[in-house]
Amino acid sequence: MINKEIFVIKYKWFIIISTLLIIVACIFPLMKTTINSDLMSYLPDDIPSKINNDKIEKVFGKSDPLLIVFETDDVLKESTLKRIQTLSKEFNRMKDFDMVISLFDTKNIKGEYGAMIVDPVIKRIPKSESRREKLRAEIKTNELAYKLIVSDDFRYTVIILNSVTDKTDIELMSIITELLDKYPGNESISINGQAYLRAEANDKISRDFMVLLPIGMLIMAIFLWFSFKEKRGVLLPTFVVAISIMIAMALIPLFGWQLSVIGVLIPIMMIAIANDYGIHFIAKYQELNAKHPDMTMNEITKDVTSYLKKPVILTGITTIVGIGGLVTHVMLPAKQMGVVTSVGVAFAVLLSLTFIPASMTFFKKGKILKSFSENQTKIGFLNKLLVKLSAIIAKRPRQIIYIFVSFIIIVILGLSHFKIASDFDSILPEKHSYNISLNIANKHFGGTKNISVMFEGDMKDPEILKRMNYYEQQLEKMPEIGSVNSIASMIRIMSRAINDPGEEFYDKIPDSREAIAQYLALYSMSGDPEDFEDFVDFDYTKAVMLIQYKADDIKTINKIVDKINLLMNDDENLSVIGGTSLIDKDISRAIATGQRDSLIFAFFAIMILLMIIFKSKTAGLIGSIPLLFALVSTFGIMGWTGIELNIVTALLSSISIGLGVDYTIHIFWRLKSELKTTDSYSEAISTSLRTSGRGIIINAFSVIVGFSILFLSAFPLIQYFAFLIIISILLCLVSALILIPAICVLTKPKFLKK
Fold first, then answer.
1. To 10 degrees, the CA torsion angle through 640, 641, 642, 646?
2. 447 — alpha (psi -120 to 50), left (phi > 0) or beta?
3. What pTM was estimated for this model as a whole?
4. Which long-range contacts (CB under 8 A, 24 or more apart) does 503-511 make?
5. DSSP state of 564
6. Neighbours of 327 (CB within 10 A)
7. What is the per-residue DSSP string for 131-200?
8. pLDDT higher at 648 or 487
9. SS3 content of the chain, % helix, strand, coil (to 5)
10. Could you give the CA distance from residue 606 to residue 627 in angstroms, rounded to a whole number?
11. Cα end-to-end distance, the chain, whole Å
12. Is the model's pLDDT at 128 over the cut of 60?
């Protein structure tokens, strides 16, 4: 150990220059960092819902719809219709979209004198009130437009675009925005669609990095100054944090990965975690400087290194193992975060053991802080608090445990309200245009969720079409489903156009293949056969049924999927069931599974590590109690507050375990040290709280301050994460400082006396 310490001091220039070279080496990969805001790509490609979706898109083309919602008092007003007509024409001219649907593109299929007439819903913009009301009446009878393109109260209408562009999402949205600005109107506009969501997320990820990182570093530096009131107390931990962030972030492009929404957390996590080890160095240095004013700086550095080397390495390992539990997660960004953050923490530990002691030798000894004077109980709120706390713990350990048990019973009841997010809709703020359009679509247009069911066979076979028609009618009875459309429903609409009400074939699928072919031929005489390409392929061997519905929880999605399976499972022509909402369902399952796996891995890995570190099973069991208490309480609080488990909050348990266990290790370590010189647990606890307890509190609050920066994030999900991780850290801190000593007073575990 002495040789090692000598090495750190003797080769201080080598250590410092090597550290600077690492910084330079990180700059090049950092410049190649790119952002991936495509939330669907966060899942592995081999999950069934993605595979099925790909099969459907291979036949019917890529589906990447954008919904532009117009809101006004009456969408049939001349000015509104002129604007929509102009925009529709402009969008139709653009090669970026293979489909444009508006009131001027949607078909009105009707019969005149025995012939089938296919016109746009609006051929001419009505100029008079009477014509406008006539058009309104016609639209109400058109099931291809009413409640799909225009709302039932005619306050909303939509333009639907399907993007096939090579442009980036940001470029595409820029074009659309420019076009909307070019043709202004009095209508309120909101936009929905994955391309819009990706563009907005991309913009907000960049914004978060530009804003959160510098603010986080500044606040951490201010916090360190108020904690230590010395330049070294600010500069050294801050430098370690900065380098650790650079290393962690440089690994992302170096491994060929892209920065995700979750990636916003990485630098903030490093701010919160990477300074922990340096803080303990500074706290111990100030303690020795006060106790032994005659020691030289090199001697203090050696003693600090000697005392903290083991606990720093051990707490570093436990943090790495805890956060490393994320590599078991199904979500790819969570795995990536587990890897890069673990490596970043490892470097933070290494730099804290080498760079900080090497640099400390360049500083002159600082002034002795008042809080370390002999009459500690009379100076400083924190010291007074810790002294009183240690006295209560020693006198009333059972009562303390009863209080903790009562608390956990109350919060655990919240687990009955615990929910898992069913989609990514809450990724943007509630008042964002994306969510406004989402609410309008759910309330007035039958929902934003969709499931696609592909059938294979002769799609002019009346038996197949009749079965499809039956499925549609059964599904439409469900209140959650807004619309179901397929080639079968189109054939039925045609039957209404060329047959009169009361006739045998009115509103029915014909009984013969020839009659169906005749319907299609009649349609092509007035309309465009390509109108059906969203429902059936070119040679009529594959057809897809599009189911649109609204759902804000997994229960509703499961209900609809179960109904589809119940209706169609035995259909020999059923090919695959896909759709983005099934991917959402798999994501939800992946979140729950990933949470469970990473939590189990991290929890038991930490428990085993504690057993190994303190060579005692009891240490593992007692040391795990604060983690279990914090995790169960946090999930209970999520239930009480309605915060869902989502792609970000699912990272909570591993991070919380990785951070929270450090406090227990430091308390165990100090209690062991004190119990070597005294048999009094009361005295050992008092000394431990006044010394290590101070460092632990500073450490915990530096972590809390670091994570509190996330409240400034543009993503509500990350703000919720900040709230929960702060709660979790506080619970770990309170457990380590109060519950663990109380348990030790009662049980007097043998490993503390070894």
1. -110
2. left
3. 0.81
4. 509/462, 509/465, 509/466, 509/469, 510/462, 511/462
5. H
6. 17
7. HHHHHHHHHHT-TTTBTTTB-TTSSEEEEEEEE--SS-HHHHHHHHHHHHHHS--SSEEEEEEHHHHHHH
8. 487
9. 65, 10, 25
10. 10
11. 21
12. yes
Give the pLDDT score at 102. Answer: 93
> How do residues 642-676 score in pLDDT, each as one tens digit?
898 887 888 787 788 877 888 888 888 888 888 88
Q: Give the burial class of 295: count Cβ atoms within 10 A of its Cβ; 0-12 exposed, 13-18 middle, 19 or more buried.
A: middle
- C-alpha to C-alpha distance for 464 and 456, rounded to whole angstroms: 9
Half-sphere exposure of residue 675, counting CA atoms within 13 Å on the CB side? 19
pLDDT surpasses 50 at 1: no
The CA distances from residue 451 to 44, 204, 265, 408, 705, in Å, are 20, 29, 33, 41, 44
The tokens 């059972």 sit on which residue? 398
The type of residue at 625 is I
d(CA 646, CA 425): 11
Tokens, residue 664: 């227990």
Please give the residue that has the higher pLDDT: either 79 or 306.
Answer: 79
What is the mean predicted confidence (pLDDT) over 344-352? 92
Percent of the residues in the chain that have a pLDDT greater than 70, as a whole number:
97
Cβ-contact 286, 280 below 8 angstroms: no
Average pLDDT over residues 4-25: 84
The tokens describing 615, both together, are 């060579």
Distance CA 437, CA 189 (A): 8
User: 481 has which bridge partners?
Assistant: 549
Place 276 in a pLDDT band, splitting at 50, 70 and 90.
Answer: confident
Cα separation of 552 and 549, whole Å?
Answer: 10
* pLDDT class of 379 with cuts at 50, 70, 90: low
For 164-195, the pLDDT digits (tens) are 888 888 899 999 999 999 999 999 999 988 88
Q: Identify the bridge partners of residue 107 per DSSP, sorted by sequence position.
A: 120
What's the confidence (pLDDT) of residue 2?
46
> What residues form DSSP beta bridges with 546?
452, 485
Dihedral sign for Cα atoms in the order 475, 476, 482, 488: positive
> Please, where are the H alpha helices in 229-296?
231-254, 265-274, 276-291
- Other beta carbons within 10 angstroms of residue 617's beta carbon come to 13
Which bin fits 751, alpha (ψ -120 to 50), beta or left (φ > 0)? alpha
Residue 204 has pLDDT above 90, yes or no: no
How far apart CA 89 and CA 108 sit, in angstroms, is 18
- Tokens, residue 213: 């990182």
pLDDT at site 658 = 77
Task: Pull the structure tokens for residue 235.
Answer: 């500069």
Residue identified by tokens 């009878």 is 141
Distance in angstroms (rounded) separating the CA atoms of residues 45 and 113: 53
Q: At a CB cut-off of 8 Å and minimum separation 6, what does 345 contact?
A: 244, 270, 273, 274, 316, 319, 320, 323
